[in-house]
């Protein structure tokens, strides 16, 4: 599937007729906000190796390149990428010697330099322009955000004006500029990110790298996370913001990256960061389903009016202590997922020689998570030696097929739109695995759902209140002003354990008598009835 945005691979195929890979190099540099020139400690999110945790600093620059090129095909083409720390932060003579050490093989076509705007000088730009006579030269600038207040909080160490000066200088020397930005920085809203994209458009950056902020061990950000002063964004929030960013990004800007990662041993949070394929696939699906492509909402005439010195006026989100929130169960409440659950389960059962289950069987088995579904589907349950294998296969198959037949129930989208128009905060809490919850919510509901939480390691399943309380907190709401909507006895019990009222829908996986036996007392037979019931409960 072709991505709905202008990828680096597309650019390389058009220019060179082949895909290129990178040789990542540790050039032995440091940063001016580490050694005291403009600060100490580096950016709050940056690890001890300056984004080069996978590199081997004990090898010389030439040895690092030879390790890769020695195994490469004769007709391959390569990018030499000086990756970690600030690779223009040294005298020009030192820079030239280190760059030259990696440029000994004709298969290298691109010299790629990662650096900071405040370390671009006329001498550095002139040196890189000399290399541009023999190679394509990219200069990657770590901007991260156009908001100077955020920049101070993350200890970036320079104002936006320095980025403006650096880009102008590099462009004057005919060099390619790639800008790094991060979604999910402390205190930033979606509008902050979109403002940053507009600033990039106004600067005519040639390329962009986008990824979500993640917490690495040994960083100042890890301390903030441990003390509760920083909460990473969800996968759904990242994907939604990334899609909106791509829609307004200039169609001429090459998208070099849409995800980021680090060594798993170094990652603290969020746990969805390694799910690169799922993130990219979901971005593609959302854009394709809506007919969106990169730049479909790009306004070239508006770029000249974008301030390159100030952040957007809406630089923060007021939390209303009286905010009213409505949280939903997913399966059987918002989405009819039964057919995909049944087919995934039965394919797994049949693979291991077990009898398939009927639709009605599966309807009765769901509600407490996929592990409980499999346990109930196998005659001897947890005691069966095949249980672990069937569970693993069911999870694998459902991850692949969770969207084959799944769709919203009648009236759901219109109901969610009504709730938004009436000012409710909306979220989803499910016992389904968290990645599928986020993907399905993003795919089917887009921006209609602000928070989506599924089952995760270390988080108790419903009817425990843990996930519901977390969603309420993420919405900035209060249990006293929250309603939970579900289709089962489990959802009624979850609401009771959380201390919130429950609305039970009658189109899902359980019937009214069973829900009533669990304590359910407020019922709806159509999605359009939910806003009125919510207003009645809230006393509006």
Task: From the structure above, extract its key features.
540 residues; alpha/beta; seven-stranded parallel beta sheet; six-stranded parallel beta sheet; 20 helices; 17 strands; 39% helix; 15% strand
Structural notes for this entry:
This protein has 20 helices and 17 strands. By secondary structure, the protein is an alpha/beta fold. Helix 16 (434-445) links the parallel strand 13 and strand 14 (451-455). The longest helix has 15 residues, at 276-290. It starts with 7 loop residues before the first helix and ends with a helix. Residues 313-321 have low confidence and may be disordered.
Report how far apart the termini are: 48 Å
What is the alpha-carbon Rg in Å?
26 Å
Strand arrangement, major sheet: 1-2-3-4-5-6-8
Number of strands: 17
Mean pLDDT: 90
> How would you classify the helix and strand content by structural class?
alpha/beta
**Biggest pleated-sheet summary:** 7 strands, parallel
What are the segments in which pLDDT stays under 50 over at least 5 consecutive residues?
Answer: 313-321
Fraction of residues in helix: 25-40%
Question: What best-fitting shape do the alpha-carbon axes yield?
Answer: elongated
